[in-house]
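User: Could you go from structure to sequence for me? I need the amino acid at each position, not a summary. Structure tokens:
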């Protein structure tokens, strides 16, 4: 079985399904941790609709979709913030596909997309409870930095110099 990673328009059905799966997982984890419940369905619909991914289209962004044995399995987005800095976002692999190297391949492909856009630095934010994500970023050479944004769920910030 092999992985393939290709750009995908954020409005495609595949991208929309992956975004919904990503948002459901991270939102449910937050609510279960802090309020002992899953995400309210109405909130889920509002948030999914509010995040169209329009900032993940060329020339300033890119959404990448990973497929495992041809089936959509994960995604990662990268958007150019300025001439030298890109942001990594929406890194997600379906739970059933984890442990097969897909997340590292997605991040690597996002790094390449950032370089191709002229970025020399890749930044991201994540939550403290997303320990798997934090371990992945550290393993891939990202280092924790001072905050670069004030997002409501941003608790940890990372950066990587792109050679």
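Assistant: Here is the amino acid at each position, in order:
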């Amino acid at each position: 079985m092999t992985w393939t990673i290709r750009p995908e328009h954020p409005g495609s059905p595949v991208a929309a399904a992956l975004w919904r799966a990503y948002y459901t997982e991270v939102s449910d984890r937050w609510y279960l941790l802090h309020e002992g419940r899953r995400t309210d369905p109405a909130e889920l619909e509002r948030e999914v609709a509010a995040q169209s991914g329009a900032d993940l289209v060329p020339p300033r962004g890119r959404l990448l979709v990973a497929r495992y044995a041809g089936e959509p399995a994960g995604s990662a987005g990268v958007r150019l913030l300025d001439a030298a800095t890109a942001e990594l976002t929406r890194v997600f692999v379906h739970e059933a596909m984890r442990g097969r190297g897909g997340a590292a391949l997605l991040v690597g492909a996002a790094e390449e997309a950032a370089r191709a856009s002229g970025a020399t630095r890749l930044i991201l934010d994540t939550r403290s409870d997303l320990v798997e994500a934090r371990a992945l970023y550290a393993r891939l050479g990202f280092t924790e930095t001072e905050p670069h944004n004030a997002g409501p769920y941003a608790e940890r910030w990372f950066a990587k110099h792109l050679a």
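One structural detail worth keeping in mind: The two ends are 31 Å apart (CA to CA).
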